């Protein structure tokens, strides 16, 4: 199985990039993982929120294949503990999913067309985080999930 984190925009802060790289290196021992950054929209001041979401949706949907299992990182998604998330990942691995794509949307969330394409929605927290920080938090949780699956001592209950 391969996992992709598809994001709108790039990580700018060096300290976040460093943390992200740390966990990507660790993840390579468990799974094929990549981050795919879509370019941020330019000249958005003349666009409404819905227009921005629609344009982002076009970019997102072009990156997906019909066989991808798509999970939106969305504030209204299911809330899981780290152990429950590891179970979710394990279920995808033993199921028929060969490619799971987790998506971080733009500042206004997802267009209806992306919601319709999604297989699942996952909330990392009831709190709102910057799109920069979500990448690090998600990748750390993904790493944690694999250590739980493998019975390694990283996660403490």
Automatic annotation (TrEMBL):
Chain residues that bind S-adenosyl-L-methionine: 73, 105, 124-129
Q: Which reaction does it catalyse?
A: pseudouridine(1915) in 23S rRNA + S-adenosyl-L-methionine = N(3)-methylpseudouridine(1915) in 23S rRNA + S-adenosyl-L-homocysteine + H(+)
Q: Where in the cell is it found?
A: Cytoplasm
Cellular component, GO annotation: cytoplasm
Q: Does the keyword Glycoprotein apply?
A: no
Q: What is its EC number?
A: 2.1.1.177
Q: Which domain of life is it from?
A: Bacteria
UniProt xrefs under InterPro entries: Alpha/beta_knot_MTases, RlmH-like, tRNA_m1G_MTases_N
Q: Which SUPFAM superfamilies does this entry report, sorted A to Z?
A: alpha/beta knot
**Keywords attached to this entry:** Cytoplasm, Methyltransferase, rRNA processing, S-adenosyl-L-methionine, Transferase
Give the molecular function GO annotations. Answer: rRNA (pseudouridine-N3-)-methyltransferase activity
Q: Which residues form a coiled coil?
A: none
Q: Name one Pfam family in it.
A: SPOUT_MTase
Q: What does this protein do?
A: Specifically methylates the pseudouridine at position 1915 (m3Psi1915) in 23S rRNA.
**Which family, according to the similarity comment?**
Belongs to the RNA methyltransferase RlmH family.
> NCBIfam families, alphabetically?
PRK00103.2-4
Complex formation: Homodimer.
Protein's UniProt name:
Ribosomal RNA large subunit methyltransferase H
Primary gene name: rlmH
